[in-house]
Amino acid sequence: MGRIEKEESATDMKEFSSSTKIVAPTIIGEYKEKDELYDPFEHRDKRNATSDLGAAAHLLKSSLGTGILAMPYAIKNGGLLFGGIGTIIIGIICAHCVHILVRTSQILCRRTKTPQMTYAETAHAAFLCGPKSIRPLAIVSKIFVNVALCATYVSGTCVYVVFIAASLKQVTDFYTGKNIDVRLYILSLIPALVLLGQVRNLKYLVPFSMLANIFMMTGFSITLYYIFSNVQPIDDKVKMFSSVEELPRFFATVIFAIEGIGVVMPVANNMKKPQHFLGCPSVLNVTMSIVVSLYAVMGVFGYLTYHETAQPSITLNLPTDEILAQVVKLLIAAAVLFTYGLQFFVPLEIISTSIRQMLSHKFAAIGETVVRIGMVMITVIIALAVPKLDPFISLVGAIFFSILGICIPAVIETISCWENHLGTFKWRLWKNFFLLIFSFLALIFGSYTSVLDIMDYYNEK
């Protein structure tokens, strides 16, 4: 009998899912000390888990993208002193929001007896476990987070399309001697974008990601060579503080550059030792320290090199008549193109899953293919409508990353701690209140400034 029970137990574990609830909570929203006895980390599927070093590499890859190339432009809009200090402060705020999101998710896993949660599931559980008056909003919160994730990634891919087209335009225009409209370059990218958008398994994107990493690191290194070879001394041309009108662009651009919260939950959930993600030292603290330092260095020295001529992407400042600079532009453009499929994978999976449930099995594959092509064409159409890089980056950072990266984590922590865990003098409530104010200011003023820039672009045309 003992052997039979052991065999049945082994069979049950084979059917175990990483999101299976071990024990259903008896009373949702009521915290009990015995909930702390449940360890969600012990019930996760760790067959394909990543090490601490692998998790740090994923976070670095998600943060060190096209955003870092926009940092000199951000410092130009903030001023050397204010921009440098402001970049560090915004980096600390973004890291803190990641921290409270992951910590809240882990606490909710204990309360709901769930091994792990996605970003949207964390929001859903927070509302279910919060005050009774807001529990009916749980489903709405989950849908809102998924929509915000889709909108953030889709808008990010639109920035990718504009960036690739602008880089190709510089090199091609130099050799042809013609000023070709950047929209033609955007249209020429459609075949490659459609093919990348049809990839439905992450393993097929691995070769593209490997090439993208090689191209990006090579181009990044050569760009640093150009920057440090031409750094100018601090003189009257260098602004220590910028004007009030330019500050929203600074905040929105830096938030766009640093934020990578969309990949945080998958990385944290897939670690062999998830408890190492938070703490001191931890994967999060070490990684964010490296990221913020690199962003500050790139921004400050890039601005000292190009001053007020700093472009929305520092690669656009490199001389177009030098072969090495042309190679950099093409390498980074190719790296961004190869990253398009990975960036687009999350929203396409969310949308495709919903579409598959609506269609019969016979038409599921065709329907998903059409949806994927349609989503790719949406990014192209938006890029054609706003083919200017700087207001696009500011707009995406102001609207999407401020909501997804700052606002939602603050709300989730406040709700989950509402009853008994707001701290002495309710300091968590006040802290999250200031985070919401910061997020809304970045949203309102950043969006307003970006829309004005877009309107000025069309008026010039």
TrEMBL record:
It is a multi-pass membrane protein. One of its GO terms (cellular component) is vacuolar membrane. It comes from Lasius platythorax. Residues 53-451 form the Amino acid transporter transmembrane domain. It is found in: Membrane. It comes from the Eukaryota. InterPro entries: AA_transpt_TM (IPR013057). The chain crosses the membrane at residues 53-75, 81-102, 143-168, 180-197, 204-228, 248-271, 283-303, 323-342, 363-386, 392-412, 433-451. The keyword Ribosomal protein does not apply. Keywords: Membrane, Transmembrane, Transmembrane helix. This is Amino acid transporter transmembrane domain-containing protein. One of its GO terms (molecular function) is L-amino acid transmembrane transporter activity. Pfam families: Aa_trans. The keyword Transmembrane applies.
